[in-house]
C-alpha cells in the first residue's frame, strides 16, 4: 500500500511563488510516474504536470513556463515549484502515483489559494 502526503499549500498573492511537496511511502516511488493534478471549485480534476521515472516531464499548457515538476528518489518526494501564480491557479492540488498496470494512488490534496 502506498500513501502520498502533500504539503505546501497556502494563501499567496498573485505573482508570488510557492513549492508543493508530496512524500510517498513504500518502495515503488522510483519506478513510478508522479503527477500533480488540480481541482478548482466546481470543476473536474485536471492534469497540471507529471514526471516519469526517467525524468521526462509534461505540463498543462496553462502552466508551461511558470511551474516546474521535479523528483528526488532518495527522499521518495516529488515537488511542484509554482511561480508567477495567478488567481486562476487556485485549486486543491493532488499528488498522483501511476504505474502502467494500471495502478493509481492519490494524496489527500493541499489547498492553494491565489489572491488578486
Question: How does this structure look, described?
Answer:
- The protein has 116 residues and is mainly beta.
- The protein is 0% helix and 53% strand.
- It has no helices and eleven strands.
- The protein has strands at 4-7, 11-13, 18-24, 33-39, 46-51, 57-59, 67-72, 77-82, 91-99, 103-106, 110-115.
- The strands form two sheets. Strands 2, 4, 5, 6, 9, 10 and 11 form a seven-stranded mixed β-sheet that branches. Strands 1-3-8-7 form a four-stranded antiparallel β-sheet, with no helix packed on it.
- Strand 5 and strand 6 (57-59) form a beta hairpin.
- The radius of gyration is 13 Å and the shape is globular.
Give me the oligomer status. single chain
Work out the radius of gyration: 13 Å
What gap, in angstroms, lies between the N and C termini? 40 Å
Number of helical regions: 0
Which class of secondary structure composition applies to the elements?
A: mainly beta
Per DSSP E runs of 2 or more residues, the count of β-strands stands at: 11
Helical fraction: under 10%
Strand content: over 45%
Q: Which geometry do the CA atoms define?
A: globular
Order of helices and strands: EEEEEEEEEEE
pLDDT average, as an integer?
96
Largest sheet: 7 strands, mixed
Poorly predicted runs of 5 or more residues: none
What brief labels describe this structure?
globular, mainly beta, 7-stranded mixed sheet, 116 residues, single chain
Compose a concise summary of this entry.
The chain is built from no helices and eleven strands.
Give the topology, please.
Blueprint (H helix, E strand, L loop, with lengths): L3 E4 L3 E3 L4 E7 L8 E7 L6 E6 L5 E3 L7 E6 L4 E6 L8 E9 L3 E4 L3 E6 L1
Parallel strand pairs: 2-11
Antiparallel strand pairs: 1-3, 3-8, 4-5, 4-9, 5-6, 7-8, 9-10, 9-11
Amino acid at each position: 500500500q502506498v500513501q502520498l502526503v502533500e504539503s505546501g499549500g497556502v494563501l499567496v498573492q498573485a505573482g508570488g511563488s510557492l513549492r508543493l511537496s508530496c512524500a510517498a511511502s513504500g518502495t515503488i516511488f522510483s519506478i513510478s510516474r508522479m503527477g500533480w493534478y488540480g481541482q478548482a471549485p466546481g470543476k473536474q480534476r485536471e492534469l497540471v504536470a507529471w514526471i516519469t521515472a526517467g525524468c521526462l516531464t509534461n505540463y498543462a499548457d496553462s502552466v508551461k513556463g511558470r511551474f516546474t515538476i521535479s523528483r528526488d528518489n532518495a527522499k521518495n518526494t516529488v515537488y511542484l515549484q509554482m511561480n508567477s501564480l495567478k488567481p486562476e491557479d487556485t485549486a486543491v492540488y493532488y499528488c498522483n502515483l501511476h504505474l502502467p498496470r494500471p495502478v493509481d494512488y492519490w494524496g489527500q490534496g493541499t489547498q492553494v489559494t491565489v489572491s488578486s
